[in-house]
Write a structure and sequence with these properties.
The chain has 94 residues and is an alpha+beta fold. The chain has one domain: Aminopeptidase (3-Layer(aba) Sandwich), CATH 3.40.630. It has a 5-stranded mixed β-sheet. A hairpin with a 2-residue loop joins strand 2 and strand 3. The radius of gyration is 13 Å and the shape is globular.
């Protein structure tokens, strides 16, 4: 079964269920953009590319909604540095 991204607005995070566990990216809405503040992958899933797949899914969902991103989580920052195809999602600096 493919992984599915869930926008849990009540908890302010994108949830990424994998193999009976839950990875997630916390967010908050700021000035018309989405600040991605923290990404977490369960220890037992580390080293398998789950975090990158999750962040890609989050960024694709934000793009599909026409949103912009403020990367604040170091993992998201590093991912976006490596993947220039997501630079168009960066919210303008003040």
């Amino acid at each position: 079964m493919p992984d599915q991204l869930i926008d849990n607005t009540e908890r302010g995070r994108y949830e990424y269920p994998v193999e009976g566990t839950l990875a997630f990216v916390d967010y908050r809405r700021v000035d018309g953009a989405i600040a991605l503040t923290h990404a977490e992958v369960p220890h037992e899933l580390e080293g398998r590319g789950i975090g990158s797949r999750m962040v890609r899914a989050v960024l694709d969902a934000i793009r599909a909604d026409g949103g912009k991103v403020i990367p604040q989580c170091s993992f998201v920052v590093a991912f976006m540095r490596k993947h220039r195809e997501y630079h168009d999602l960066l919210a303008p600096s003040n």
